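<instruction>
Derive structure tokens from the sequence
<data>
Labelled lines for chain and fold
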Amino acid sequence: MGRVTERRKVIRIRDGAVSTRPDTLVAEEPLEIRLNGKPLAITMRTPGDDFALAAGFLVSEGVLGGAGDLQNILYCAGATADGANTYNVVNVKTTPGVVLPDITLERNVYTTSSCGLCGKASLDAVRTTARWPIDDAPPLRLAPELLAGLPDRLRAAQRVFDRTGGLHAAALFTEDGELLDIREDVGRHNAVDKLIGRALQNGQLPLSRAVLLVSGRASFELAQKAVMAGIPVLAAVSAPSSLAVDLAAETGLTLVGFLRSASMNVYAGEHRLALPATAATG
């Protein structure tokens, strides 16, 4: 199975001095996800938690809604012409009787910002396939001060980032700020899929009282994944996209961007934050 990191020789230049040294890089390999034996998607990922990644991806696609929908996930033996197992192909087998949504042999058309569909079609697709409407979730109330402390906790838990500097991270926190799980990957969407997939495998969906924090920007795709997993709060250390904000407003998702120290922007769902009355109405 592939390694999370690899070593490569680099020429290092510092203040005019030149030296040769090994450097630790994050590994990147393709993962093909098959659904009941049929190719569905290929994603570039950091090896590790591949079964959780596949399961989380299928939650986002509306295929899986709970551990009972999943019969098994296996690496495909003989993935190459010579019969070798590359550990880069997994097959997800659903439980007999699980009704599959209308998906194609390529990544579902509403899951990427480059899909070519209009924004309205993308929003409608998520709204009509979400199993757990966020507005129906139990009430959640967060202090801005609690959110402000989460990025430091995320960064402190990024073990592989410390060695490579090349990984995105996603973490789930409780409403009290307790770290539930953290995953790292070369792709920010993969890190989120790994979190959601592990929650599905553990019978924890929907994540209706969790906060999802991502180390980069908040794209439409990440907002979609939060909504599909029933997560009511998505926070990012960088900017959201316009369609992510639209989706948050459409579904009731609380979306926070530019979360850095005591500073943050709230783009939607401010009713879940304990804001001063003047700020909430001003």
